[in-house]
Amino acid sequence: MSEAGLPMETSKVPEGVATMAPQSIGVTIRAFLSLTKPTICLLVLITGAAGLVWEGSLTSNPVAFLLVMLGLFATAGCANALNQYLERDRDALMKRTAKRRALPSGKLTPRAALIFAVAIGVFGTALFAVFFNLFSAALALSTILFYAFFYTLYLKPRTAQNIVIGGAAGAMGPVIAWAAATGLDGMTWVPWAMFAIIFLWTPPHFWALALCLQDDYRANPLPMMPNVAGEKSTLIQAAVYSVAMIAVSLSLLWAEAGLVYIATAVFLGGLFMWKTIVSMRLRERAHYWRLFGYSIVYLFGLFLAMMVDVAWRVPVIL
User: Fold this and answer.
1) 39-43, 44-48, 135-139, 309-313: lowest mean pLDDT where?
2) Statement to judge: residues 149 and 192 lie in one domain
3) Reported confidence tier of residue 22, pLDDT bands at 50, 70, 90
4) Which among 217, 273, 209, 240 is positioned nearest to 94, based on CA atoms?
5) Does residue 199 sit in the same domain as residue 308?
6) Claim to verify: residue 150 and residue 62 sit in the same structural domain
7) Sign of the CA dihedral running 62, 53, 40, 151
8) Which member of 42, 142, 286, 300 has the lowest number of beta carbons within 10 Å of its beta carbon?
9) Please, which residues have CB within 8 angstroms of residue 277's CB and are 6 or more apart in sequence?
């Protein structure tokens, strides 16, 4: 670890990081896949697919649609893999990640992880450039660099607002997908509204997790909001972001969203606020876990509703 707190490649194995032991090919493949953080990639794919379905021009071209999905997976996976490579020493200090992640557990070497991350990042960016357009490729590459370096190395160890700003990277799925379909000239406010929903969703989602893992972040240490501002302030801020998120989700009514989507947005958003209020009142770890788990259901449900709404659109009569 350097004086600035950044991980460095050395011949010495970092304290707490297991040495690599012989393992099966299946274990190694699963370890490489885990570098991409598949759950996060799935959220990126769902939100990106919603952008493509709403835009509509690639829904009749399944090959192009799947190529966009592949590009999103590769670029999101690259950003996540680089994040784990750069945070391997930090991950070794946290109970949640020390045994679960491939690098601190010794399932992969740092060199192998770095080569894998760079390879899939180059592949994903090249895919957008060759099969779609340079604008989408530039957005994909910028997202990788922003998340892997600016967020991981600069924001995360320095400010409690790390996840607020860094959340922009995870929100880019619909924007990159829409850009791949239309290029710069075809961009409208709709993919940016989808971006805003995910961007505003990220703080309450991640702060709920951080509230459950305060001891881990004290041991690391990282300036996560609950440890810096306290539980009460964190939950108040989470509620503010949740209200803004719900408001933006309903703005799609002006993009001709139908009854299926609007009804789903109202129901899921109302339940999100209820769980946030319960967490604020009781301040118990069990409720923080429930809020965290539901936040994932919320995002999946909302963006799936966008796609269903396009297929079976029932106009909203005001």
Assistant:
1) 309-313
2) no
3) low
4) 217
5) yes
6) yes
7) positive
8) 286
9) 239
Q: How confident is the model at residue 318, as a pLDDT?
A: 59
Using the structure block, give the residue that is written with the tokens 């970092």: 14
Q: Which two tokens stand for residue 145?
A: 């660099």
Contacts (Cβ under 8 Å, ≥6 apart) of 75: 120, 121, 124, 125, 128, 140, 141, 143, 144, 176
Residue at a domain's end among 148, 183, 218: 183
Asked which of 183, 201, 234 is the last residue of a domain, the reply is: 183
Of 10-14, 242-246, 297-301, the range with the lowest mean pLDDT is 10-14
Taking CA atoms, 39 is separated from 27, 43, 174, in Å, by 18, 6, 17
When divided into structural domains, the chain yields a total of 2
Instruction: Take residue 28 and report the two structure tokens written for it.
Output: 């190694």
Q: What does the pLDDT average to over 87-115?
A: 87
Please tell me whether residues 229 and 244 are part of one structural domain: yes
